[in-house]
Design goal:
149 residues, alpha+beta, 7-stranded mixed beta sheet, 5 helices, 7 strands, 27% helix, globular
Amino acid sequence: MQQIKGSGWNAFYDEENERYYGEYGGTQSYHLFELTKEIFDQLDETMSEWDAGKIMYEGRHLYMSVDDRCGPPYTVVFDEDYEKLCPWAKVMKSGKVWPEELTDAAVELFESEKNNREQRRKKREKRKEPERPESHEEPESREEPKDEE
């Protein structure tokens, strides 16, 4: 695995899977991204966390944790496969994890999360698919009670 290590950030190229990733931040704010080769190639180990973070933000957000004292701490999981994709990541966890519905809404609303829309929409459709019943029995019909006079 190829690594570029800066002050407060890391970027990796996973040769086995031919994928690029980056992370930056710490206690107050932590971010994990899937990057493109073009984004990865722009990163330089002499960059500040701020500069590297601005470049990484062009990638697909996988995970975010915030504890900036401007409100209660929270975590947003944009892609629940982040642990499989980035087992090396030093993920910072804080506060409650946003529910899937809130994460879906944020991805649709914020332009900064547009790279997550396709993936989140596919996952949302999968969640909506009805589960197949184990048996082939018809569900019981529910009749309205009749008024007796």
